[in-house]
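protien #1 (seq + structre)
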Amino acid sequence: MKIACTQWVEANQMGNYPVLLAVEKEGAERNQISTTFWQGYYVVMRDGTIYDMSIIWPSMKLLHFGILNEQ
């Protein structure tokens, strides 16, 4: 899922900066059986821009995308 997030950012971002880091943040509770779940990530770009995004498994569709700060 982390790879899917970084690939989405690289494919859809406006700048030409590489991804430095993708960090997992809060996600859905996984203590019960479910056919889907979501996970959130912060994706940090080389220029300092930080994206906040969530993706759902198994479809790998983007649930949320936002910019926390922009350089």
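ok now protien #2
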Amino acid sequence: VRDAIKNAKLNGLSNVEFFAEDVNKFLLNHPEYAGKIHTIVLDPPRSGIAPKALRRVIELGASRIVYVSCNPATQIRDAVTLEEAGYTLDRFSLVDQFPHTSHIETVGLFIKTKKNDNATTAAGGATANEAPAAAYAATGSAGAA
């Protein structure tokens, strides 16, 4: 968070706030943010975000959710929930942080849409369910190191 604050100052940004907190605790401690958050970055553990916590994140109504995952299998599960809640996978990327291993990180950008028509993405036509599945198929792993 300190680096994020420093970076914001260096770039002249004054309308941002940063939090590094368990999502459940944050949602309990800061109900005043519901409906006011533009972007949420999720980087859950290998087991994925807890279903109840994901529902609470969705209730915040952010227009963008960046979901970083070390396990495409749990990202698929959570992506389906996001899609059902009206988010569309806009971009998806694989990040090879650990070369010569089967471990990959996946990053998905989900955009809140007015209606969920299971739209395809500009990045290859994959739906939220298909992109992490394709990552899983390409690596033959669920992101295990």
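Residues 72-84 form the longest helix (13 residues).
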